[in-house]
Amino acid sequence: MPTTTARGFLALTGLAGLLASLFTATPTVATAATAATPAAPDTSATVVPAIDLAQLLDTALAESAAKVGDPGVQAVILRDGRLVWSGKHGKAVDDPPTPVADDTLFGFASFSKLLLGTYALNQVEAGKLALDTPISAYIGDDVPGSDVVTLRMLLTHTGGYPDVYESPKLAALLPGGEQYEPGRPFTWQMIARALRPPVDPGKNFSYSNTGFLILTHMLSVRAGGDRELTAAVNAFTARAGSVVPEDGKVLTMERKQRDYPRFAHGYEYFPKQGRIDMFTHFGDTGIPTDMFGLPWGDGLFALTALGGAQFIDALYARKGLLKPATLRAMITPTPQSIAAKDPYGMASYRFEAGDRVWQGHAGAYGGFNTLGGTDLTRGVTMMVVANNLGKDAADKIFARLARTYASATS
């Protein structure tokens, strides 16, 4: 078994690797002017008949998936809250062979940061948190650097916290580690032991899973506990129409073993083992406890593609989750990220695909690869999720679908 866990390895790669892999195009660094206000949707585009568009997109999905190992895939396109197209491809589970269905759940990995960050900004709007107050005001001094680090720093990856997944104490407890026990719950205390003091907080951009782990702990403390936080987040995401039905069929941060039958399994390639099933290889018989859910604030959610798309459509196209000023602040890249050539705002960034610019986030962990974004100019949202990590499957499929949609609607 590998001595470096998948979660730890992906944490080490950081956002730079994800951005570098996105369609071979460098994400556009938005200027303050262009990032300040989401553009009004462009309604002048000529759209091909729906049946022809669906056929074009179905073909694009099948062909692009074939080029990245034929993973199980869900893909969705929305426009201003309306479903334009949805597609699915391949197998959710290899053995026994199980096709991807509309309600198959995928781990969304770091795409979850966008959802959690949006909720945190909503708490700022409600007066329950402040962006520039040291987080010690909310969690005391148990976290190193809490008297200096702020919520804004956590959301913008400028807090300076070293990667907790480099800690032997935590790595040993994760799949592949010497002390890993399938089914053992993880707690905040297990993560806290791996925390180290931040380095130059506020000065530099460095993609940080640690920051979002701390953010989740802070939100839990403020809510009154994990159960209360879960209820509050569920209520917030329901405003986007994502929690339908209430058992988490579309979007969930609750790891319930009864949901196991409808979960896709994530698959990864390892040098010695080859392609492995991340749900069964390490001895798990249910949903792996490191896959999503609390305390993993860096990858909190499991969703369907429609669940992810509905959320960012509500956020960026319908503008129903945050106030305009908050939304402008969220999507504006920080000076630190621009200096690092990784333009990133608060839990969100811009990237190019299909000759169009999208606002959203990517994710990669546990055999899952996700990418979702909204074309702010046209009010179009696309979400792709795949269960094959290592070939940038979601990224490449997203790029092909974006090109196909753009050529058919321009």
Question: What's this entry about, in short?
Answer:
It contains 14 helices and 14 strands. The protein is an alpha+beta fold.
Explain how this protein is built.
This protein has 410 residues and is of the alpha+beta class. It has one domain: DD-peptidase/beta-lactamase superfamily (Beta-lactamase, 3-Layer(aba) Sandwich). It is 35% helix and 16% strand. The chain has 14 helices and 14 strands. It has helices at residues 6-21, 32-36, 50-66, 112-125, 136-139, 151-156, 168-171, 188-192, 209-223, 226-238, 305-317, 324-331, 335-339, 393-409; strands at residues 73-79, 82-89, 91-93, 98-99, 106-107, 251-252, 267-270, 274-277, 302-303, 349-353, 356-365, 368-375, 380-386, 388-389. It has a 6-stranded antiparallel sheet, with helices on both faces. A 3-stranded antiparallel sheet has the order 5-9-6. Helix 3 (50-66) packs antiparallel against helix 14 and helix 9 (209-223) packs across helix 10. The longest helix is centred in the N-terminal third of the chain and has 17 residues, at 50-66. The termini are far apart. Residues 1-38 and 242-248 have low confidence and may be disordered.
